[in-house]
Amino acid sequence: MSSTLLSLLSIIVFMDIFSQRLRELRLDKKLSMKQLAKEIKENSWLIGKAGKETLLNQHFRDLWHTSLNEMGGKYAIWARYPQYPSLN
């Protein structure tokens, strides 16, 4: 076989593998979105409101505590809970 034909066959095989992987990724994304929607419906996630300024200006280590405090009530109590309760 000529090198041109071998190159062409290599490209075809690569494109087939690439296409299959894209199909798998699309399926993974659909499954992930369904799982996230299910978990939100089950109240497995805390959903709050945060403006882009809070997200951009707040240090990531403080974001959790700040967000919980802003939600108030039991969430503010959670914000003050120690990271390692057994060391308290």
Give structural notes.
Helix 3 packs antiparallel against helix 4. The chain has 88 residues and is an all-alpha fold.
Count every helix, treating DSSP H or I runs of 4 or more residues as helices. 4
Largest beta-sheet details: none
Estimate the mean pLDDT confidence. Answer: 81
| Number of strand segments | 0
**Residue share in β-strands:** under 5%
Distance between the termini: 74 Å
Radius of gyration: 24 Å
Uncertain ranges: none
Query: What sort of overall outline do the alpha carbons produce when their principal axes are compared?
Result: elongated
The helix-and-strand class reads mainly alpha
Question: How would you spell out the order of helices and strands?
Answer: HHHH
State the share of residues found in helices, binned by percent: over 70%
List keywords for this structure.
88 residues
Structure summarized in a few sentences:
The chain is mainly alpha-helical and about 90 residues long.
Question: How would you summarize the topology of this molecule?
Answer:
Blueprint (H helix, E strand, L loop, with lengths): L2 H39 L10 H6 L2 H12 L1 H7 L9
Helix pairs in contact: 3-4
